[in-house]
UniProtKB/TrEMBL annotation, chain A:
Annotated binding of ATP, by residue: G52, P53, P54, G55, T56, G57, K58, T59
An annotated Gene Ontology molecular function: ATP hydrolysis activity
Name of the protein described by the UniProt record: Replication factor C large subunit
Ranges where the AAA+ ATPase domain occurs: 44-167
InterPro entries, sorted: AAA+_ATPase, ATPase_AAA_core, P-loop_NTPase, Rep_factor-C_lsu, RFC_lid
CDD domains: HLD_clamp_RFC
Species of provenance: Methanosuratincola subterraneus
Pfam families: AAA (PF00004), RCF1-5-like_lid (PF21960)
From TrEMBL, chain B:
Pfam families to which the protein is assigned, alphabetical: PCNA_C, PCNA_N
A single GO molecular function term of this UniProt record: DNA binding
Keyword DNA-binding: yes
Superkingdom to which the source organism belongs: Archaea
The protein, known as: DNA polymerase sliding clamp
Keyword Plastid carried by entry: no
Species of origin: Methanosuratincola subterraneus
Protein purpose: Sliding clamp subunit. Responsible for tethering the catalytic subunit of DNA polymerase to DNA during high-speed replication. Sliding clamp subunit that acts as a moving platform for DNA processing. Responsible for tethering the catalytic subunit of DNA polymerase and other proteins to DNA during high-speed replication.
Length: 391, 250
């Protein structure tokens, strides 16, 4: 057999779009978009964004679409987007030239754009947008969390193609095929457990299966017992949905684990979304009450660097927010914490205020806090300036 | 075991410069017949194909196939230190993870460079029927490209009626360079079919770095197809570049 040493995810990789499991409709949507994009019809979005959790077939679909349409695939990932020049050099160069090998065309795929981080990469993101606008070839970007506010400009010019977590029944069917090809006899129970624990990540399921089955001819339920539930990084909006729909404090806390959100950010998200989730004053009051208790612990964590208290902060805030509901959970539209954008909008104003407080505190030999609460309000009234917004 | 000696270190310097303008890292493959390198630029729009036969070296020893993965920027920095009248020895011992580069002049200086473990990608060169082949002094083409860069970032090459035209137009104006056989600047023209195509100046000017190594450049292309530039190095060996055409704007 060929490819003996390859990971099974490579060795038993689908060879055509027809074999895609779970997200076939999304792969088809991508295929249709690329076709329309090549024809250059009216109203076709300039780019496409394939998004969803890891292991759901995003990259594979792009590869297979390129194959199906006989396009040369130019793949790039986060390390190619570090700077504006790099994006221009690599993506920009690829976007305006025809294929070197005389193929019918090219498909440009920029994967893992979530990997673009921090301010220094802002240039990278805006030149990705510029590249998509100017490109003579279809450009697809791949992301795990498309709702990241940094991607807003990108979302506007992209056809959004969602890849969902794959249902475990579909994963089982696929694992059975893999088992057959690999010559492993596995019980249904074993495969079901692997599928269940993969949490909709087919790549993870195949990797787990290979790990467990290596060097064996058979695999049963007992032998997969050691498998751990896969905790994946999920998008912040999914986390909110999971958190508010929890039926126990533990479940709510688990929703926050395995996310890229730090605890402070998590509390911001809860804070922002309590009024979205709850309409009745009673529920809101209850949720905020628990959130505030969690925040007290978070304050202690930060003040005393007492990281062992972090569990209490999360459990009280998340559990309390989730259990405040008096009826059934219902899905609402969650929003991104406004605090961050407000803070950045008022950065200059706050800076100026801070400077003023420094002067006042120095001149009067008082603390900054005292200057803010006891001196500044009067000065504002006396001078007739300022907003009379308390600190 | 691999060891090669070049009588003039500046040749290697120019070779590295002509490769590094397009590629950051790559794998030289040395075998008993000589050194080869084939690499694509990161955007996969341009390719360089270098062939230095044994005969291009003052002395050459190589047993078996030796892959030598290097960072060209690092190697270029070493070669910047080379003076005129210096010999260059390149050496890689059995199982050694470093490449020794020795400059022999008034003093003997040995640089050791870490080798990259780059997975070898089997690249095949584009197989394209070229309808036009022209030969011209490399310096003439370099000048024409510099002229075009004044007004644009891409250029139209066309060959018709035994003359070559390099034209460019942009917001900054237009330029037309005509190279004819009569002026002696067009050394040969073979036309199966009159052709023209657009190419990015950014890549072309990088490729013309190799003009310092060869008197003559052969240019091959077809309508809206990739371009090929051949430089037969005066010191022996060959550098070939391929460049994908720029797409015409609608």
């Amino acid at each position: 057999m060929t490819g003996e040493g390859l990971p099974w995810t490579e060795r038993f990789k689908p060879a055509s779009l027809m074999e895609i499991v779970g997200n076939y409709a999304s792969a088809e949507q991508l295929l249709n978009w690329v076709k329309r994009s090549l024809e250059g019809g009216e109203g076709v979005k300039k780019g496409a964004m394939v998004y969803g959790p890891p292991g759901t077939g995003k990259t594979l679909s792009v590869e297979l679409v390129a194959k199906e349409l006989d396009l040369e695939l130019i793949e790039m990932n986060a390390s190619d987007f570090r700077t504006e020049e790099l994006v221009e050099k690599v993506a920009g160069g690829a976007a305006s030239q025809a294929s070197l090998f005389g193929r019918r065309g090219k498909l440009i795929f920029m994967d893992e754009i979530d990997g673009i981080s921090g301010r220094e990469d802002r240039g990278g993101l805006s030149s990705i947008i510029a590249t998509i606008r100017a490109s003579k070839h279809p450009v697809v970007v791949g992301a795990n969390d498309p709702w990241d506010p940094r991607f807003r400009g990108l979302r506007e010019i992209c056809e959004m193609i969602q890849f969902r977590r794959i249902r475990s029944q579909s994963i089982v069917v696929y694992l059975k095929k893999v088992a057959k090809k690999a010559g492993v006899t596995a019980t249904d129970g074993a495969l079901e457990r692997i599928a269940e624990f993969s949490n909709g990540d087919l790549r993870a399921a195949i990797n787990d299966f290979q790990m467990l089955a290596t060097g064996r001819q058979t695999l049963n339920e007992l032998e997969v017992r050691g498998l751990q539930f896969r905790v994946q990084e999920r998008g912040s909006f999914d986390v909110m949905k999971e958190l508010f729909s929890s039926k126990s404090a533990l479940e709510a806390k688990l929703a926050l684990e395995g996310t890229a959100m730090d605890p402070e950010m998590a509390l911001q998200w809860i804070n922002e979304n309590i009024p979205n989730q709850y309409q009745s004053p009673k529920e809101r009051a209850e949720a905020y009450d628990w959130l505030s208790r969690g925040d007290v612990f978070l304050g202690r964590v930060k003040r005393w660097q007492a990281w062992d208290l972090i569990g209490y902060a999360l459990e009280l805030a998340a559990g309390g927010a989730a259990l405040a509901k008096s009826g059934e959970y219902r899905f609402v539209k969650y929003s991104f914490p406004k605090r961050i954008s407000i803070m950045s909008q008022t950065k200059e104003e706050r800076g100026a205020k801070r400077e003023a407080l420094d002067l006042i505190a120095k001149a009067n030999h008082v603390s900054l806090k005292k200057a803010a609460f006891e001196y500044l309000p009067y000065i504002e009234i006396i001078s007739g300036v300022g907003t009379r917004r308390s600190a | 075991m691999f060891k090669a000696v070049l009588a003039d270190s500046r040749v290697w310097k120019s070779i590295i410069e002509s490769v590094s303008t397009l590629v950051d890292e790559g794998v030289f493959v040395a075998d008993p017949s000589g050194i080869k390198l084939r690499a694509m630029d990161p955007s996969r729009v341009a390719m360089v194909d270098l062939d230095l036969p044994k005969g291009a070296f003052e002395s050459y020893e190589c047993s078996g196939e030796v892959p030598i993965g290097v960072n060209f920027e690092d190697m270029k920095n070493v070669m910047r230190r080379a003076g005129s009248n210096e010999k260059l020895e390149i050496e890689k011992g059995e199982d050694e993870a470093r490449l020794k580069m020795r400059l022999r002049g008034k003093t003997t200086r040995t640089f050791s460079l870490p080798l990259l473990d780059t997975g070898k990608e089997e690249l095949s060169v584009p197989r394209i029927p070229f309808n036009v082949t022209v030969k011209a002094p490399a310096s003439t083409i370099t000048e024409a490209i510099k002229d075009a860069e004044v007004v644009s970032d891409f250029v139209r090459m066309s060959v018709e009626d035994g003359q070559m035209k390099i034209t460019a137009s942009g917001d900054r104006g237009e330029v037309e360079v005509v190279i004819t056989k009569e002026s002696g600047e067009l050394l040969s023209v073979e036309v199966k079919e009159p052709s023209q195509a657009l190419y990015s100046l950014n890549y072309l000017s990088k490729m013309m770095t190799a003009a310092s190594l060869a008197e003559i450049v052969a240019i091959m292309f077809s309508k809206e197809m990739p371009l090929r530039l051949d430089f037969n190095l005066s010191s022996g060996g060959k550098i070939v570049y391929y460049l994908a055409p720029r797409m015409e704007s609608e």
